């Protein structure tokens, strides 16, 4: 993986991944890109080989730095081309691109093409959608299937940066099928300059030296690294990929100065940056007082004001100048009715202030299963939410959504740490975690079978907690026609007719979406001569079995957003008259460190009653537990395939 210089400002809901490739001048005379020179071990299982990656971060002062990057990659096949054929460099008011070059070489290392100005396209991030931004990016597209494999791309650029809140991080390898011939990360500082860094997961040893001008140089080098063998249930990237994180100690941006030595320092800087931007117009204050006039508790006031705020504002990404971190003021949001995550959170905090309720903005790294390194204070956040610490409870608010329930922190912001923004410096706190008992899917199904095995199904399902997120998107963002199409694609039943369906959203503290389906399914059961074969587990997909079921050496990870779940199914089959069970009714039970699984079946008065309940607990598990996990999956899958055979009774 290449160096990624984190330029993303806080407040952008759709996050763009920048592939930032820095610059040394093209030097084909000094580099041999002949494919035959690649160590054969690096070609094994590889889609591409990083021939040379040189990242050079030159710190000029507390307020300015230069980034140089040279990147050469040999493309071995179409998958490698899909990953590397485009290069993107972002820039804005604080970051200027001062040089950019590129070239393509054939398998022998002979130059085929040099990058021209016409090959570089320039775009604005705010060109479409709800974005207001002065950030731009240059895109180089080397084309697809334009050159025979293998071939090599070299791309170099240089930037000059006056936003020193962000230092680069170095991740020389990734979990994709890229081998690395050589990758180098180099930092040069002024004499006596202090910055911070932290090494993770077996990164190569740091080499300290002096440049020709006597200034300090810090350098890490990784060489001849084959493709990482990926395993099922891999740990999060930040727990196994070698990396170096860097951050400022003292820094300056525009007229603001700060340091990031502690989380409290970062919190205090963000507070100062946004101080006195919470003033509201008199008319808005009067409106707030009216909204809460009948509320009897602080909690009731918070819920009423959040609902009010959702009804009168909408999300727009605003990234102008330092606005990537500094919010627009609450008065502007009140008058305009829109803002980004910073602005809407600031508006919500200002609103609660008028109600006499203390609350705080909280910086968070958003995204499904997003990870941060809490042991290294630095700008690792990309989103802002509101935190209201009431005496007996803490309420979290996602201020960019017009539909999310109060206090629901789902897969986007839940189960992670957030930094409270306070005048004297805040601290890292945990957002809400939903366990298996709160992430439920409860399904009740009545099935009426005819003598040919065709079924009429009435299905009621309640989705709760994280499990309701997919249905909530369906409920709020899809038309009825789109909902039906989505259901037909996701209901794993053959010969399906969806006659009716409807959704409803409850008002529970933990969000619940109910789904009602009226289905007709041909061959719901299989009729063969005098026998009818019924598979009771009709609608629930079983656990997937990974390709690797053997023992492993490293720990494995079941993400809580996927595996902290509780699923229950209750099915009642109306069996045609004149049939009786020929086989034993399915029954099964298992308990393990991963959870539990129970199946019960009964037959009475021509009704087959089937119940299934599975509770799973995610988390990190030792390699020694892997065979137990595979055994758990296999037993669940076998039990889910069980069927009941009915045979006609003799008259």
From TrEMBL:
Domain Transglutaminase-like: 290-361
UniProt xrefs under Pfam families: DUF3857, Transglut_core
InterPro entries: DUF3857, Papain-like_cys_pep_sf, Transglutaminase-like
Domain DUF3857 span(s) in chain numbering: 66-226
Annotated protein name in UniProt: DUF3857 domain-containing transglutaminase family protein
Species of the source: Dyadobacter subterraneus
């Amino acid at each position: 993986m290449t160096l990624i210089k984190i330029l993303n400002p806080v407040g952008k809901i759709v996050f763009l991944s920048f592939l930032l490739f820095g610059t040394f001048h093209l030097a084909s005379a000094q580099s041999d890109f002949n494919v035959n020179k690649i160590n054969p071990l690096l070609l094994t299982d590889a889609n591409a080989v990083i021939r040379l990656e040189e990242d050079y971060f030159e710190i000029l002062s507390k307020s300015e730095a230069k980034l140089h990057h040279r990147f050469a990659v040999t493309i071995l096949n179409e998958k490698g081309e899909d990953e590397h054929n485009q290069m993107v460099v972002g820039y804005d008011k604080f970051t200027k691109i001062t040089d950019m070059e590129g070239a393509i070489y054939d398998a022998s290392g002979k130059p085929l093409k040099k990058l021209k100005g016409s090959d570089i396209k320039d775009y604005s991030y705010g060109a479409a959608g709800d974005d207001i931004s002065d950030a731009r990016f240059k895109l180089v597209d080397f084309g697809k299937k334009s050159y025979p494999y293998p071939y090599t791309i070299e791309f170099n650029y240089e930037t000059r940066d006056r936003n020193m809140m962000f230092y680069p991080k170095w991740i020389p390898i990734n979990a994709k099928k890229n081998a690395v011939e050589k990758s180098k990360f180099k930092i040069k500082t002024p004499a006596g300059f202090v910055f911070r860094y932290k090494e993770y997961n077996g990164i190569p040893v740091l080499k300290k030296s002096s440049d020709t001008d006597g200034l300090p140089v810090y350098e890490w080098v990784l060489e001849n690294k084959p493709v990482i063998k990926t395993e099922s249930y891999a740990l999060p990237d930040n727990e196994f990929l070698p990396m170096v994180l860097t951050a400022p100690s003292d820094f300056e941006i525009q007229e603001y100065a700060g340091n990031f030595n502690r989380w409290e320092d970062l919190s205090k800087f963000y507070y100062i940056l946004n101080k006195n931007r919470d003033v509201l117009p008199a008319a808005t204050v009067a409106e707030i007082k009216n909204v809460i006039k009948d509320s009897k508790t602080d909690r009731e006031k918070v819920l009423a004001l959040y609902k009010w705020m959702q009804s009168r504002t909408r999300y727009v990404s605003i990234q102008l100048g330092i606005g990537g971190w500094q919010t627009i003021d609450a008065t502007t949001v009140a008058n305009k009715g829109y803002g980004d995550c910073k602005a809407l959170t600031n508006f919500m905090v200002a609103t609660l202030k008028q109600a006499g309720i203390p609350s705080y903005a909280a910086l968070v790294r958003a995204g499904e299963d997003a990870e941060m390194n809490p042991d290294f204070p630095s700008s690792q956040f990309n989103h802002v939410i509101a935190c209201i610490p009431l005496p007996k409870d803490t309420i979290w608010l996602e201020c960019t959504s017009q539909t999310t329930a109060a206090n629901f922190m789902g897969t986007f912001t839940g189960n992670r740490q957030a930094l409270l923004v306070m005048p004297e410096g805040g601290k890292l706190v945990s957002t809400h975690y939903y366990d298996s008992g709160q992430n439920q899917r409860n399904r009740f199904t009545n099935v009426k079978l005819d003598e040919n095995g065709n079924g009429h199904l009435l299905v009621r399902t309640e989705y709760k907690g994280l499990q309701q997120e997919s249905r909530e998107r369906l409920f709020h963002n899809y038309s009825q026609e789109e909902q039906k199409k989505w259901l037909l694609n996701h209901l794993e039943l053959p010969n399906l007719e969806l006659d009716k369906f409807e959704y409803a959203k409850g008002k529970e503290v933990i969000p619940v979406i109910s789904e009602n389906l009226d289905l007709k399914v041909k061959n719901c059961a299989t009729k063969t001569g005098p026998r009818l074969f019924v598979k009771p587990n009709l609608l629930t997909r079983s656990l997937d079995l990974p390709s690797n079921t053997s023992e492993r050496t490293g720990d494995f990870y079941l993400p809580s957003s996927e595996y902290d779940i509780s699923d229950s199914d209750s099915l009642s089959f109306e069996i045609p008259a004149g049939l009786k069970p020929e086989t034993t009714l399915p029954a099964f039970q298992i308990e393990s460190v991963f959870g539990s699984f129970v199946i019960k079946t009964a037959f009475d008065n021509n009704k087959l009653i089937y119940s299934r309940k599975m509770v799973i607990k995610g988390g990190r598990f030792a390699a020694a537990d892997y065979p137990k996990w595979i055994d758990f999956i296999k037993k669940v899958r076998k039990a889910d395939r069980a069927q009941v055979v009915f045979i006609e009774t003799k008259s």
